[in-house]
Amino acid sequence: MRLPxxxxxxxIILTLTGAMALGACGLAVASTPRSASxxxxxxxxxxxxxxxxxxxxxxxxxxxxxxxxxMNYDQVGYLAADAGxxxxxxxxxxxxxxxxxxxxxxxxxxxxARVERRGPAAGNEVLALSPAALAQLDASPGTPVxxxxxxxxxxxxxxxxxxxxxxxxxxxPMSLVDxxxxxxxxxxxxxxxxxxxxxxxxxxxAAAAVVKPAVAVKSPIKPAVTSVARLTESPFPKVAAAPILxxxxxxxxxxxxxxxxxxxxSMVPSVPSRAFSTGRFEIQxxxxxxxxxxxxxxxxxxxxxxxAGKLFRVRTGPFATRGEAEAALxxxxxxxxxxxxIQTSG
Length: 346
Hints:
Number of helices: 10
Shape: elongated
Strand content: 15-25%
Radius of gyration: 38 Å
Structural class: alpha+beta
Order of helices and strands: HEEEEEEEHEHHEHHHHEHEEHE
Number of strands: 13
């Protein structure tokens, strides 16, 4: 049946209106931003540490540097300052970014810093720190330091990426600091000295010093054999073999000195009786420049703090025998105090 013209016109208008409404809905859905329904990644997330940039070789003040990704980097040298923000640092060769522990060899204080730039811009210092990092380390340009590359947990990385300081690391014991100071290059030297170089060279020199005398002496054992023979011949060289060749009889009673070779006091090893006495052994975990750090270490180890001049020593014990002290020493070193040692307390 044919509809009247006015009804057909109304039906066409309704159809067109519905189509326009559906198109508008589709356009609205299509124009909705993807971020409205998906979470936005934080600007300070782990992805901010990537990509890691190494970069080409370059030179500063006539000294060449070749950046490389070294995980066990451990070096001593002197500090410089730069204008970086937050707790950040500039380094000649470490990847960008990377993270380092910086220890002041003046106080033992240790901080965590983020390497973000190449530098120092002019000079051969091992590291340049931002003003905030220098303040946290309580150091200044020229302060001797130890720089170790580390891989801190993500929460500490996030704190440094946001420009804030991470918590102070445990103070380095002053006994270890003294050892590190001896490895420092002279101020203004053309290059810093690596920890590997300072430990390898003395060993090679010492080995050469031992090998050369050994080659020059043809028979180093001969004097020792002669001296032992003379000891066994005295005081009865002719009768010493009688107990082996003749049966023992009352009429051939031999002197006691012949049956038992003479033994000097120097040939008998002495055993110190203090090793078996009680309460004579303690474990010294370390010496600290700050009393608060010493108290924290003593709390972790259930130890005690004693002052020695400007230092504060942390000790545990006493222990009854050296065996007990050595067992306690292994536990203290396992807790991170690798420089711990046994001390006598009596």
